[in-house]
Amino acid sequence: MPITDSPDCDLVFYTNPMSRGRIVRWMLEEVGASYRQELLEYGDAVKSDNYLAINPMGKVPALVHRGQVVTECAAICAYLADVFPGARLAPPTDQRAAYYRWLFFAAGPLEAAITDRTLGATVSDEQQRMVGYGSYDRAVDVLASAVSRSRYVAGDEFTAADVYVGAHVMWGMQFGSLPKRPEFESYAARLMDRPALQAATAMDDELTPKT
After folding, report:
1. Fewer CB within 10 Å: N-end or C-end of the chain?
2. Going by C-beta distance under 8 Å and a sequence separation of 6 or more, which residues neighbour residue 150?
3. What does each C-alpha distance from 198 to 7, 22, 106, 194 come to in angstroms?
4. Minimal CA–CA distance to 111: which of 159, 164, 151?
5. What pTM does this model have?
6. pLDDT tens digits, 60-103
């Protein structure tokens, strides 16, 4: 477990166990770097002046590394892959087309499509040109194709893109915002075997308040 209480640690992770911070926790476990965690409750803690100075959106997660702030889960995953190259979670720079494509497809069109559908926002046929995802069904079909064309979303090797895309797929099926298609179930099964995901999930589950 790479968590440390040292105030001198140069990697600080701000999170809540019931948030997208679970994605970043998984990524941190994959890179294996020591980090200090700062657990924030929803409400006053994430809206405090101290935290807003780190993330003016008042959202978790956020990462501070050597004085530099990174927010947005996709950006954090890409950043950690770059600053910890020994983990080999990003392809060589001349082979990153699929890596970037699907990482940011999930952060942009896919998340927007899922959010709009969850909130009951209806996009007419005429309005599909105005939204990046076109339609929910199209976004889901594209995602299914992306995760089934090779072992992992950017090829045969696991990368940071799988952390982010995989989290969307697993959470989507768990909470009903994505259908349980065979392509998604097969992809998720491969990811759930990863020790880093298992360790991260156990940590956040332990930190989640019991009702």
Report:
1. C
2. 156
3. 27, 11, 22, 6
4. 164
5. 0.96
6. 999 999 999 999 999 999 999 999 999 999 999 999 999 999 99
CA distance 139 to 128: 12
Nearest C-alpha neighbor of 166 from the set 119, 110, 205, 113: 110
Residue carrying structure tokens 């105005």: 130
Asked if residues 187 and 148 have their Cβ atoms less than 8 Å apart, the reply is yes
Q: Tell me, what amino acid is at 145?
A: S
Q: What pLDDT score was predicted for residue 178?
A: 98
Q: Would you state the structure tokens that stand for residue 46, as one six-digit string?
A: 């994430």
What pLDDT is attached to residue 153? Answer: 98
Residue 1: pLDDT band with limits 50, 70, 90: low
Spell out the domains of the chain, with CATH numbers in brackets.
Answer: 11-88 (3.40.30.10), 93-196 (1.20.1050.10)
**Contact present, 106 and 77 (Cβ < 8 Å):** no
Between CA 54 and CA 64 the distance in angstroms is 8
